[in-house]
Design brief:
The protein has 238 residues and is an alpha/beta fold. It contains eight helices and nine strands.
């Protein structure tokens, strides 16, 4: 087998992805499938960091929209991401993979705090590092956390796992003629007003020259193909 295209990756997972077909919560079969895909790439020597959302449990924006103070709602959302991170780490351990959770909010009795140097050492030792609690600050999304952590740990690329197999010229559910971009530059994505990530996250990746690949989490073998540099998803490059 040829060598992976990337040595170290930052995988961004949405909390909603963990639900599967359930209305809320964590679907163990979906989590087990994610773990299998990640384990497959770690066996190639790829170092994997993960940022996970919390929308399957609580979403700060929706809480704020219902009248809750936005900062309070965002902190609740961060705690939801820690719960997801713990569930994911437990699934990795069940699969025989050493995983560590680092939280941007201190919850020392449950998970360790985020320490950049320690995270990098874990990655070099072959452990999967799961980053919880977003950036630790309200008003920032987990997309921004993924861009930030990816930059901090020196990742080669941010992989955004979604329900769609890439970035399209239009919403493929609404426009059957929409076509997928194989590659697109940051500048062109901005000019076309394509919603790749939130603006803060996108700008950070662009400024740090950190490419992004948007791919489908539910397409069998997609993560491996992305890591091997094959035509999978959409690559956003500098």
């Amino acid at each position: 087998m040829s060598q992976p295209a990337y040595k170290r990756i930052l995988l961004k997972l949405s909390g909603e992805a963990l639900m599967g077909d359930d209305a809320y919560g964590i679907n163990r079969e979906v989590v087990a499938g994610i773990v299998r895909d990640v384990v497959e790439v770690t066996r190639l020597g790829v170092e994997v960091g993960v940022v996970i959302g919390g929308g399957n449990i609580f979403r700060g924006m929706s809480g704020a929209a219902s009248g809750m103070d936005r900062a309070t709602a965002d902190y609740m959302g961060m705690l939801a991401t820690v719960m997801n991170a713990m569930a994911l780490a437990d699934a990795f351990r069940t699969a025989g993979v050493n995983a560590r959770v680092q939280s941007a909010l201190r919850i020392d009795q449950v998970v360790e705090p985020y320490i950049r140097g320690k995270a990098i050492r874990y990655l070099e030792e072959g452990r999967v590092v799961i980053f919880g609690a977003g950036t630790g600050n309200p008003f920032f999304t987990t997309d921004t956390a993924a861009a930030l952590r990816g930059s901090e740990i020196g990742a080669d690329i941010v992989l955004k796992a979604t329900k769609v197999d890439g970035i399209y010229t239009a919403d493929p559910k609404k426009d059957p003629s929409a076509t997928r971009f194989q590659r697109i530059s940051f500048d062109e994505a901005i000019a076309r007003n394509l919603a790749v990530m939130d603006a803060t996250a996108f700008a950070l990746c662009r400024d740090q020259r950190l490419p992004i690949n948007v791919f489908s989490l539910f397409k069998p073998g997609a993560l491996l193909r992305v890591v091997m540099g094959e035509d999978e998803g959409t690559l956003v490059y500098c």
